[in-house]
Design brief:
Layout lengths: L4 H18 L21 E6 L6 E4 L5 E2 L4 H13 L20 H5 L10 H8 L7 H15 L9 H10 L1 H12 L6 H12 L2 E2 L1 H8 L18 H14 L5 H7 L4 E3 L4 E6 L3 E6 L10 H14 L12
Antiparallel strand pairs: 1-2, 1-7, 3-4, 5-6, 6-7
Helix pairs in contact: 1-12, 2-10, 4-7, 4-8, 5-8, 6-8, 7-8
This protein binds glutamic acid (GLU).
Glutamic acid binds next to loops.
Length: about 325
């Protein structure tokens, strides 16, 4: 379904205003020290329609930020494309209901992560990237990103990477726990790969462009080439819908109703299947680690354009 460009521009500027109104309620993440350099006052949005040559943007749409947990979507897409459903031999597909870095279920469930979008699951996915070092593995991921969006630059923010490498004890604990149960083989390499993956940078504009294949059954609408087979794309969207915003995912489904993935740097990618890829960047986070401005903007946009995947036409009786 295509949108009238002027109508979409007006909806994006209202969503941007809704995001800005909400952002006073959040705070920038500081547990990775380098992330604390971001300003709670930054906010940008990019909305890319499937049939449009470029995104409609507002605010800080060209400001670079590290993907953090949004990277989990692309690492999983890459690994699903290579290994298919074998990824799920040792990683579940159930929402956890716990915080993103929680360790409690790992003990109950013998080191098997609940899903690939919580930290433990993403660390186990990182281990499946090809290569003998974190650099080599993330090089592969960057090549994949550039294949999707050849004009994009996706450098690793080395300062963010080193900052998490120095402080990521909790993620290392998750990796070691999984190593104990034989779910992963090399805990140090898996966690270093994961930290490097989280430090890959995008902008809201480039992230929306990267997400287009997810709104188009796995095929990039610009090049026409298949990025991910349709059935794996469906799996990825199902996981984003059920596990993409940690323990706020139910509330997000009610407020917005789109498959999405958030990250602690303040990025959010949301997909309106068959219609739009939407990226926001607002480092002020709410209590569950999701961008307050991003969620508010998405709620506004989804409401105005009827984007929720749970919206239905009612049949006249
Ligand atoms: N690198 C971050 C961590 O593992 C990512 C978390 C997130 O973005 O939610 O703590």
């Amino acid at each position: 379904m295509s949108f009238d460009r002027a109508g979409l521009e007006a909806a994006v500027s209202r969503a941007y205003a809704a995001g800005r109104d909400a952002m006073g309620a959040g705070a920038v993440a500081t547990y990775i020290p380098e992330l604390a350099r971001a300003s709670a006052d930054w906010f940008g949005i990019a909305v890319h329609a499937l049939d449009a040559p470029e995104a409609i943007v507002a605010g800080d749409a060209d400001r670079a930020f590290s993907l953090q947990s949004v990277s989990k979507v692309f690492a999983l897409a890459y690994v699903l494309g290579r290994d298919g459903d074998a990824v799920f031999d040792r990683i579940g597909v159930e929402p956890s209901g716990d915080a993103f870095h929680s360790i409690v279920r790992l003990e109950e469930e013998h080191g098997q992560p609940r899903n690939p979008l919580i930290n433990a699951g993403a660390i186990a996915v990182s281990e499946r990237l090809p290569g003998d070092s974190a650099e080599a593995r993330i090089d592969h991921l960057q090549v994949f990103l550039r294949r999707v969006h050849p004009d994009g630059a996706f450098p690793v923010d080395e300062a963010v990477f080193v900052s998490e490498l120095r402080t990521g004890f909790r993620n290392r604990a998750l990796a070691n726990y999984m190593r104990h149960y034989g779910v992963i083989g090399d805990a140090a390499l898996a966690s270093e790969t994961y930290f490097r993956q989280c430090a890959v940078t995008v902008t809201a504009r480039s992230l929306a462009r990267l997400g287009l294949f997810l709104a188009n059954g796995g095929r990039d609408p610009v090049s026409g080439s298949e990025v991910l087979p349709a059935r794996h794309t469906r799996t990825l969207l199902a996981l984003m819908t059920t596990c993409g915003l940690y323990d706020e995912v139910g509330r997000f489904a009610v407020r917005v109703g789109l498959p999405a993935k958030s990250g602690v740097s303040g990025g959010l990618l949301a997909i309106a299947p068959g219609r739009l890829a939407i990226a926001t960047y607002g480092p002020a986070l709410g209590a569950k680690g999701n961008s307050v401005a991003g969620v508010a903007a998405l709620e506004c946009l989804a409401g105005e354009l009827g984007l929720s995947i749970f919206d239905q036409e009612t049949t006249p009786t």
